[in-house]
Amino acid sequence: MKALFSELLLIACLLISGCATTISNSDKSSLAFTDNRVAPTEQEIASLFDRWNQSLQSGDPQKVVANYAEQSILLPTVSNKPRLTSAEKVDYFRHFLENRPTGEINMRQIQIGRDFAVDSGLYTFCFAKTRDKVRARYSFTYRWDGKQWLIVSHHSSAMPEK
Question: What pTM was computed for the model?
């Protein structure tokens, strides 16, 4: 059932973007796009979380927000307010970074399309300042902008069961 839901989520994202091409695991390594770009591997998409997580370590909200496309949405873990603009994201991360968070992936599933990729699963944040830990569900949707992969949608919600 989880696999079906993930496939439907990816298809919905691709249809909304006007691109309905999906890539199976067996096709990824040899597929070249018309712009001579080769489809990313799951490892490359997974490394985008590492890039984002490293920007958290900088303590600089501007560096974190640089991972997001200009038109993107952040549905954060510890705020009820959706963040749409860069200024709103900087404001959120300014406060979030105060407790010196570090994220760790506990479980993930990656789906790759032509110009979109979805990395979703479970992660845990450890906060060095407070020593708190927060387990959460996440989804990052990335879009290729012609130069790099950027986050267009980031949803994170604390796990409901303790």
Answer: 0.78
